[in-house]
Amino acid sequence: MEKHFTRIANAIAYAAGKPGTFILCAGIIIVWAVSGPLFGFSDTWQLIINTGTTIITFLMVFLIQNTQNRDSAALQTKLDELIRSSKAKNHFIGIEHLTESELEEIRKKCEEAAERAGEAAEEAQEAAA
């Protein structure tokens, strides 16, 4: 079931991001707007577009969130493997599960370390010159 859903979700997300899909949707809106005078701009006429767009938006939110979650998990796994297999510090593996404040603290430490490394490189260049 999960593989089937993933295949369908990927196909719909891929199709939804194509220019042709946008053109089709814009065309539907134009046809709806042009048909307004034909239906006297009735409540039913308005309800059709409102209901249709609400349903599509509701479903697309979950579909997009699903694809984003999978993409994010795959990216984190790839980064974790790069960290694990390199000389990088292994304590960075899994930091996506930390709180915002914990991540901010690590980010500041990384920035400070990068700044110190840059200063040390500048001093080494000046000493060599």
UniProtKB/TrEMBL annotation:
Pfam families: Iron_permease. It comes from the Bacteria. InterPro entries: Iron_permease_Fet4. Signal peptide: none annotated. The chain crosses the membrane at residues 21-39, 45-64. The keyword Coiled coil applies. One of its GO terms (biological process) is transmembrane transport. Residues 96-127 form a coiled coil. Keywords: Coiled coil, Membrane, Transmembrane, Transmembrane helix. This is Iron permease. It comes from Kumtagia ephedrae.
